[in-house]
């Protein structure tokens, strides 16, 4: 059974850090393009960062460049998003996505709230 389970979301103060995890089962993440998306209240879901199967990394959201890092641990079959210097505008539900030809998997999301 294919499953993506995100964790690590929390309430954090501005300037704080969080590390999101996305544990995959039923498939091998190194064979997929793995991404983090986020959706803030009242806004469309946006692509934050992607790591390709060959390890190429792209950060798509300008506002997180230099603060967020995407990585994966193939041995643990887990995707990560390290988020530093968090801002209130980072508040959103963060989703993990795995995609390859004819396959597109999503996790249930994890809430990140940045507030003092």
Describe the protein in words:
This protein is an all-beta fold. The chain contains no helices and 11 strands. The protein has strands at about 5, 10, 20-25, 35-40, 45-50, 55-60, 70-75, 80-85, 90-100, 105, 110-115. The strands form 2 sheets. Strands 2, 4, 5, 6, 9, 10 and 11 form a 7-stranded mixed sheet that branches. A 4-stranded antiparallel sheet has the order 1-3-8-7, with no helix packed on it. A hairpin with a 4-residue loop joins strand 7 (about 70-75) and strand 8. The mean pLDDT is about 95.
Q: What is this entry, summarized?
A:
The protein has 116 residues and is an all-beta fold.
| Helical amount | under 10%
The coarse overall form would be globular
The mean pLDDT is 96
Distance between the termini: 40 Å
Let me know the largest β-sheet: 7 strands, mixed
Q: What is the string of SSEs from the N terminus onward?
A: EEEEEEEEEEE
Please provide the count of β strands.
Answer: 11
| Low-confidence runs | none
Instruction: Give Rg in angstroms.
Output: 13 Å
Count, helices: 0
Class derived from helix and strand content: mainly beta
Instruction: Give the amount of beta strand, in percent.
Output: over 45%
